[in-house]
Design a protein that fits this description.
The protein is of the alpha/beta class and 449 residues long. It contains ten helices and 21 strands. The strands form five sheets. Strands 1, 2, 3, 4, 5, 6 and 16 form a seven-stranded mixed beta sheet that branches. It has a five-stranded antiparallel beta sheet with strand order 17-18-21-20-19, with helices on both faces. A four-stranded parallel beta sheet has the order 10-9-8-14, covered by helices on one side. The termini are far apart. It binds NADPH dihydro-nicotinamide-adenine-dinucleotide phosphate (NDP).
Length: 449
């Protein structure tokens, strides 16, 4: 007797990867349902990339209004209202959630607004107790901020809460010096808060090219951001006036109104029933998958941050799409992890694709490095004398561009196009043969000699 299923695919988690997989699987004719315990859209849309980028834009006005004087503008009475910004951002998140929900509806994907867990290779249990049989299950539950264990950590917030602050803080301590820390350090600093970044190591943005991160540090220090290195937070005490006293290992304590902890995100697999169903997890709780997203249980797949490969939205989307094409579209596809462009929306922003100079040297190949250190025209009349810096890492034997690393205004916008060249394996000679677009910052990419 053939087994009957309620759905061909049950997706747990309606974030970037889950929604894409649902939509594509449905377009291939699958009967699809998705469960989401919080809000449709997932981290990126609800409390990540999208609201963060809107805050970054808002904070750019602070620099822009200052620089405007150099271009002849007199602007009196400028004021910033955090509550207005926060509520505008929240309403845009609502709009996007509706758009994502419509995508599910338009593709006839059933959605359940409750927590779901795995009860067997083909069985999903909803929080309400209802059990659903599915031919395939996709785990797309994402990751969750890690909160280090120290006394008083209940007084700290994570990126989940930072978008909802009641009042704009005058003093902010940020633990961690990765993506989230450096992006929010820039936002709070530009909007007028005193910001201190505290990190356990003596670096910011591990993994990015050192020339870029050193320049970012110098520039952000000039803008007023302070750093305390080799110094984890060892406790937070709430004072009578509501302030937070942050105790550091090896440094004086700092008083703050908000302590934001941004020390990485861990796959959200606790209590999901995966191990009980036979799905193998890694040391960080991540779902272990093969190139096609298949877990140790053939009917269960996983995509996105829950697999802890590359925690980036476009990667989750590609993985979700490839999964749906493979399982329901008859077109087996994997996701390519080479030449993934990335950016940190710090101020100024940083963007990179391919190998850093150090990674390239570590391969043992002979490399050539080309750099451009320039003053962007947009900064000509700025009070901040900030220079841009681009680096090309080139394989000496083949002349192929192995990596591009940039810090400058608009670096992420420029890098997306430049990443095509790295992905396509173009050479330094191809860059040189390309006519410059003048005057622009991007032209530096084809003028490095
Ligand atoms: P990151 O991994 O970027 O940075 C973590 C930071 O916390 C590092 O400075 C690290 O120190 C420190 N750290 C790690 N573990 C501990 C610990 N146990 N105690 C104290 N400090 C610790 O994580 P984020 O939280 O900033 O971001 C999570 C992920 O979200 C990123 O990896 C990224 O993939 C994604 N993201 C992407 C964005 C983008 O594309 N623009 C924006 C925001 C998030 P060190 O490394 O120096 O040892």
């Amino acid at each position: 007797m053939t087994e009957t299923f309620d759905y061909d695919l049950f997706v747990i988690g309606a974030g970037s990867g889950g929604v894409r997989a649902s939509r594509i699987a449905a377009s291939h004719g699958a009967r699809v349902a998705v469960a989401e315990e919080f809000r449709v859209g997932g981290t990126c849309v609800i409390r990540g990339c999208v609201p963060k980028k809107l805050l970054v834009y808002a904070s750019h006005f602070a620099h822009g209004l200052e620089d405007a004087a150099g271009f002849g503008w007199t602007i009196e009475g400028k004021q910033f209202d955090w509550a207005k910004l926060r509520d505008f951002v929240a309403s845009d998140v609502d709009r996007l959630e509706r758009a994502y929900t419509s995508t599910l509806d338009n593709n006839k994907v059933d959605h359940f607004h409750e927590r779901a867990s795995v009860a067997g290779p083909n069985l999903v249990r909803l929080a309400s107790g209802r059990e659903i049989r599915a031919k395939h299950i996709l785990i797309a539950v994402g990751a969750w901020p890690v909160m280090p264990d120290f006394p008083g950590n209940e007084h700290a917030i994570t990126s989940n809460e930072v978008f909802h602050l009641k009042a704009f803080p005058k003093r902010v301590v940020i633990q961690g010096a990765g993506y989230i820390a450096m992006e929010f350090a820039g936002i709070f600093n530009a909007l007028g808060a005193q910001v201190t970044v505290v990190n356990r190591s003596n670096r910011i943005l591990r993994g990015y090219d050192h020339d870029l991160t050193e320049r970012l540090m110098a520039m952000t220090e000039k803008r007023g951001i302070e750093y305390r290195f080799d110094s984890p937070i060892c406790g937070i005490e709430k004072l009578a006036d509501g302030s937070l006293r942050v105790a550091l290992d090896g440094h004086d304590p700092i008083e703050a109104d908000v302590v934001l902890v941004a020390t990485g995100r861990r796959p959200k697999t606790v209590g999901l029933g995966l191990e009980e169903a036979g799905v193998k997890l890694g040391a960080n709780g991540e779902v272990i998958v093969d190139d096609y997203g298949q877990t140790s249980v053939p009917s269960i797949h996983a995509v996105g941050d829950v697999t802890d490969r590359v925690q980036l939205t476009p990667v989750a989307i590609r993985e979700g799409h490839a999964f749906a094409d493979t399982v329901f579209g008859g077109k087996p596809r994997t996701t390519a992890y080479d030449a993934i462009p990335s950016a940190v929306f710090s101020q100024p922003p940083l963007a990179a694709v391919g190998l850093t100079e150090m990674q390239a040297r570590d391969t043992g190949a002979e490399i050539k490095v080309f750099t451009s250190d320039f003053r962007p025209m947009t900064n000509m009349f700025s009070t901040q004398v900030e220079r841009g810096y681009y680096k090309l890492v080139v394989d000496a034997a083949s002349d192929k561009v192995l990596g591009i690393h940039m810090i400058s205004p608009e670096a992420p916008e420029i890098l997306q196009a430049a990443a095509i060249a790295v992905k396509a394996g173009l050479t330094k000679a191809d860059f040189d043969a390309t006519m410059a677009l003048h005057p622009s910052m991007a032209e530096e990419l084809v003028l490095m000699r």
